[in-house]
Amino acid sequence: MHTATPYRRAPAGFTAAQWAAFDRDGFLLVEDAFSEAEITGWTDAVLRLRQGRARAEGFFTLQNFVEQDASFAALIDHPAYVGMAYDLFGEMLKLQLSELFVRAPGGADRPERWHIDGPRTTPYAAFSGDAPMQVKFGVWLTDVPEPGMGNLAFVRGSHRQAWFDAYDTDESPPDEEVLRVRRGSLTLMNTALWHRTTPNQSERTRLNLYLGYSPSWLPTSDRATSDPAWLATLNREQRIIMRSYAAPFAHAKPPAEDYPLFLERETGADREPGRYRDHIRLFHRKRTTAAERWRAG
Q1: Is the pLDDT of residue 3 over 80?
Q2: Are the C-beta atoms of residues 260 and 8 closer than 8 Å to each other?
Q3: How far apart are CA 26 and CA 22, in angstroms?
Q4: Residues 258-264: what's their mean pLDDT?
């Protein structure tokens, strides 16, 4: 250990079984990931934000929601999943997008068609090989136990397909899976996975939150910078993960004070031993991600 600064160790990340499933399928479901108090608080916040911004019934979405209500700050570095994101993106971890959805019965503005998230003509996967360049965690605030409730539909393993026959349609291919999920569950999706949202033909309004993470140098989808007064209310790790840098190149080379984001999970060290001579500063040192170690065998 080379520092006495009270940095936090990285929270728990993927188990071996979770990593194998996510790497294979491009999708992961973790049930009962959040407490009842958390789900109730976030649900109340969604409804507060919806009030006055949307008609009483129908479809409502809001990006960069983490800045819109104090209860959402905990989602930036929530221990249920931020360790998984750190396993993938390491010291360059960034919250690339936060987006909430309210899908009332019959409230979709238009049928959602099969797509991937991010650029379409030259997708992220063209540059990143086996490693996802962006992932999305879903926080499910309502039970979605049956089809026809605004379910997420996807095809397992399709994150490895550059072309998809049902693209830009709302057809149901034979290998489609319609997600049935309990309130309080967490989902993780490689954004290269082909997916769509089905219409809500039930009598229940579906609420959920999505948080997308990426390397810090990927452009954000929902903001340029964050409100400094709001940033001042966050803890150190939350502030760093928001990556509110005025200098554009700081996204590729974050400032020295933003290293380390987390200490090593098992050892509490701020660097990998034996990699560099002592004079190399922390923000110049490559740190191996957990995903790199798994792929190396």
Answers
A1: no
A2: no
A3: 5
A4: 97
Amino acid found at 259: Y
User: If pLDDT is split at 50, 70 and 90, which confidence band does 53 have?
Assistant: confident
Task: Assess contact for 112 and 39: CB atoms under 8 A.
Answer: no
At a CB cut-off of 8 Å and minimum separation 6, what does 201 contact?
A: 105, 106, 148, 149
Q: Mention every residue, 6+ apart, whose C-beta is less than 8 A from residue 98.
A: 63, 64, 65, 66, 72, 75, 209, 210, 211, 212, 222
Beta strands 195-197; 152-154: pairing state: antiparallel
Give helix then strand counts, H and E, for the chain.
7, 9
Q: Which two tokens stand for residue 160?
A: 């490895």
The tokens describing 102, both together, are 């309210």
CA gap 139, 98 in Å, rounded: 11
Rg (CA), the chain: 19
The pLDDT assigned to 58 comes to 75
Query: Which amino acid does the sequence have at 50?
Result: R
Q: Maximum Cα–Cα distance for the chain, whole Å? A: 63
Mean pLDDT of 198-205: 92
Q: Which alpha helices (DSSP H) does the chain contain, by range?
A: 16-25, 36-50, 82-89, 125-128, 228-231, 236-242, 290-296
**How long a stretch of residues is the chain?**
297
